[in-house]
Amino acid sequence: MGRLSMNGLILGGVVLVLVGLLGFAIPMFTTQQTRDVAKVGDLKLQTTDSTSYVIPRSVSGGAVVLGVVLLGAGFFQRR
Questions:
Q1: What pTM did the predictor assign?
Q2: Quick one: how many helices (H) and strands (E) in the chain?
């Protein structure tokens, strides 16, 4: 049981560090959604909406710090 939780801490830490670094590298991303506006017989009118999201630096930094803490806890339990 102890080994499983240690591996979980290390894995969680690595994932959080990578997500945080990705947030620093790509602080803004855009998604697109296509939806039907009207449909008459075989004729279909569609629109595409673009939505931009900004990842705050504090969230990215917090993920990196929390990931490092989890990594440290996982390696500390290993001893």
A1: 0.71
A2: 2, 2
